[in-house]
Each structure stands twice: as C-alpha cells, then as structure tokens.
Specification:
CATH class of the largest domain: Mainly Beta
Number of domains: 3
CATH topology of the largest domain: Beta-galactosidase, Chain A, domain 5
Strand content: over 45%
Largest sheet: 9 strands, antiparallel
Distance between the termini: 35 Å
Number of helices: 2
CATH superfamily of the largest domain: Golgi alpha-mannosidase II, domain 4
Number of strands: 36
Structural class: mainly beta
CATH architecture of the largest domain: Distorted Sandwich
Helix content: under 10%
Length: 456
C-alpha cells in the first residue's frame, strides 16, 4: 500500500504543469468538498523559506516539523477544491511572521476556540469552548475524563509550536506505557489526538471520553449506516431483546449531544475514530444499554468475549498500537457535518512534489463537484473490470431526509449507468447539466458507472 501511494504521488506530480526554478508541490484533497487543513511535504533543507499559494499569490503560514524522525515542511493549505489540488511554491528567504496557531502555558493549550487542560498522563481534564459562553465539555466518570487510559503520572512537553499547528506531548508509564499528542491547527475547531501504546497487554483496556452533557443522545456509524444508540421503543435502532449491548461498532465517528437547555439550544461533541473498532456507552453491560451516562469508552484492546477464552490472546504478541482520535464541539447533531469532520481527520491532505507535465494546470484543479452537502462521494475508482469499463462513483446521503443531487465532472461524460455495489449494471442514467442528477432516500447509498467521453 505504501508503495502504491508513493507511486501515485509521483505520477500526479509528473502530470502537473511546472515553470521556473523554485520547488513546487501540490496539496491534494481526496474528499468531495472544498476544505482547509495542514499539509506536510518532506523537506530536509534548513535555510529560511516562504511558501506561496500560486492561486492567490499570497504567502501561507508554514513551519518545520519532525514526524517519526523525518523532516517536513508543514503549511496551511486553504480552500483546496474537491477531489483536486492546489499548487504551492517554496521560495528562499525569510517570509512574513505569523503568530503561533495556539499558546501553551504549562498544561494549558489554548486557541480562539478552546482552552484545553491536559493531565500529565495525556488525558484532557478540561475542555472549555470559548465560542459557546465558556462552556465546559469535559467531565470525569470513575476518575476518567477525555482520552483517558486510566490513572497515572507522566511528563508534558511542547513538541511542535508554529503558525500552522501546536502539539503538546504527554509521555506516561501507566496504566500502560503510552505517548499522547494533542494538536491544535490554525483556524480549525478540530482537536487532533494521537495515542501510541508501547507495550504488550492482555487485559481489556479502553480510552474513556467523558462529556459534560445532560440527557445524552448518542449516534454512531455502523457498517454503512448511522445508528441512534437507543432501544427501538425509545426511538433508537437497537432491539429491546435478543441483543448484546456492551460493545457497539465504532467506525468513522460517534457523536453525543445533550438535551436542549432553557434557551432551546443543544450542544454536543463529535468523536472521530481512525483506528479502533468498538465502544461502550456509559456503564452498559451485555444485557443493558446505558443511555444516561455521557461517557464513551473506546476499546484499546483485550478479549471481550465474556469468558476470557475467545479472541486473540495477548494482542498476538504486538507491543505497539497507534490509536488516533479527534474532537469537535457543535450545536445540534448534524449527521453530515459529523461525517465530514471525521473524514477530514482520517483523510489528511496529501502533499507531493511537482516535477512537470502537460495534463493538468499549474495552479489548481478539481475533478468533481457535488451540489448537495448532505451527499458524500464515498468512493471514486476505476471499475473492477479495468479502466476501460469506466469509473465507479459511490454516493451516500447521510442525512435523515431525502436528497436530490448533481454530480458533475470536469471531464465530459459520455454515459452513466446505475450499478449494484458489486458493479453489476442495473440501467442507464440520463445525464443533465453536464453531470449526473439523481435522488437518494434518507441514508441511502447508490453506485454508478461513469464512462468519460473520448478526447477530441
């Protein structure tokens, strides 16, 4: 997979037009909406540089970071188009001085959105939203707050601090040897969390996320479905009998929103999950679903079959576990916003060197556009039968209401067909407005085969 990814980066870099002698690189956005985020370019040179967004001609914030022992130039790439790229140029010489993305004072990490107090063990013990009247979102249950592996001590240090991002690093020996990095990105409401467990273990371990929310209402992603974690008589999606409730599937995200206050305003938190698979709500057991306790415990590892005999013993001998999360506060629960947030966290902008070609423009390019923000482009790839059989596009309406949408391509289309998810053709689709118009029911997924028009 790493080789394929590296080959793709080189291939795209060879297709983008280039001029001049200064190094250029692209920031590629694989998602179906315009977004702003950081991008990391391998860059070992230590001379002062400035980075220019070629679409605006303006300098962007940049800083040097080291990740896993390798040197990178991290930039803030704004408004990168959907399934497309922006090109940036690196010029020698001191540039504009941008203020740091956040401030650190001891164990307090702060930007214009949040004040975050981090314990030495890496847990977030205070999470205050400055944009919502100094609202406190952290709450401890059983002595465990947010991103809390359990009791322990440790040390804190600032690992990176610059105009693009600031990272506070915690190193702790207990309850398992682990390292936690909390990162704030310039002008972003996302709180990035990177946990690394560095020892083998055999018992059940969880990362606790306790929230200060009354009357919590939890939603989470199953396989291709967004579920309300309540029993069906209470308006949820879980059967009231013949079901197991202690471990629920955790895919891209879980969300917990409190009941509305006296002013009719509800607030909540979205938890993005990149690496783990299951979660427990509150004090749920195999036979009881706890929907009253505003805590999510994400399974870090261990055998949970109930009798201690099923599952993989001692994590198969592994002694390193990467488990990444992200948090963002919000008002009322919005499934599309929650999913977009999770996908941005788990699909970072990809940076590659521009080496020069003639296929794509030198500054900016976008392959697709989607007219409805509730409809997400879930997959775009060559057909299983090969590129000559067209492109496969899968779309998902993650909203609770029907959605009409228009999927447009920069490349002209000759025809389109609806297919099964296994890519068996079902019938032709009439193209309109240079794109693919269609209707989706609530939470519906559909797949299409797109045949580009031959070049003129």
């Amino acid at each position: 997979m790493d080789t394929l990814h590296a080959d793709a980066l080189k291939a795209l870099g060879k297709l983008i037009q280039a001029s001049g002698t200064n190094p250029r690189f692209f920031a590629f956005n694989p998602l179906s909406w315009t977004r702003s985020d950081f991008a990391d370019l391998p860059h070992a040179d230590t001379v002062p540089v400035q980075v220019i967004d070629l679409t605006t001609g303006q300098e962007v914030p940049s800083q040097r970071v080291k990740l896993d022992g390798k040197a990178y130039l991290r930039i803030l790439a704004r408004d990168v188009p959907p399934v497309g790229y922006k090109v940036f140029e690196v010029r020698q010489g001191e540039g504009k001085r941008f203020p740091d993305a956040a401030t650190v004072a001891g164990n307090l990490l702060e930007n214009q959105f949040y004040r975050i107090r981090v314990a030495e063990r890496g847990a977030i013990v205070r999470l205050i939203d400055a944009t919502r009247g100094e609202r406190e979102f952290a709450r401890a249950f059983g002595g465990r707050a947010i991103n809390d592996l359990g009791p322990g001590t440790g040390t804190l240090e600032v690992e990176h601090a610059g105009p693009v991002s600031v990272t506070l690093k915690a190193t702790a020996p207990a309850p398992l040897k682990h390292t936690t990095r909390i990162t704030l990105v310039r002008d972003s409401r996302r709180i990035d969390i990177r946990n690394e467990i560095a020892q083998n273990f055999s018992d059940v371990q969880t990362w606790a996320f306790g929230f200060n929310l009354a009357g919590p209402d939890a939603w989470h992603e199953e396989v291709g479905a967004l579920l309300r974690a309540r029993l069906t008589p209470d308006g949820g999606h879980y059967a009231p009998s013949r079901a197991r409730y202690d471990w629920l599937t955790l895919n891209h995200f879980a969300d917990m929103t409190g009941s509305a206050d006296a002013g009719g305003r509800a607030v909540g938190v979205t938890l993005s999950n990149a690496d783990c698979y299951f979660m427990r709500l509150g004090n749920s057991t195999a036979r009881k679903l706890d929907t009253a306790t505003p805590q999510i415990a994400v399974l870090a590892g261990g055998r949970v079959g109930g009798d201690g005999r099923h599952g993989i013993r001692d994590q198969g001998g592994d002694a390193f576990f990467l488990q990444r999360f992200a948090l963002q506060t919000h008002d009322a629960y919005d499934p599309a916003a929650a999913m977009r947030f999770a996908l941005e966290h788990q699909n970072p902008l990809v940076a590659g060197t521009v080496t020069g070609g003639n296929a794509y423009p030198d500054r900016c390019f976008s392959l697709v556009s989607l007219s409805n923000p509730n409809v997400l482009l879930w997959a775009l790839k060559p057909a299983e039968d090969g590129g000559q059989a067209g492109l496969i596009a899968r779309v998902w309406n993650v909203a609770a209401a029907p959605a009409d949408f228009l999927l447009q391509f920069t490349v002209p289309l000759a025809s389109a067909r609806q297919t099964t998810h296994l890519e068996t053709d079902l019938g032709d689709v009439v193209l309109a407005d240079d794109g693919l118009p269609f209707h989706l029911a609530p939470q519906q997924l559909k797949t299409f085969r797109l045949l580009p028009a031959p070049p003129k």
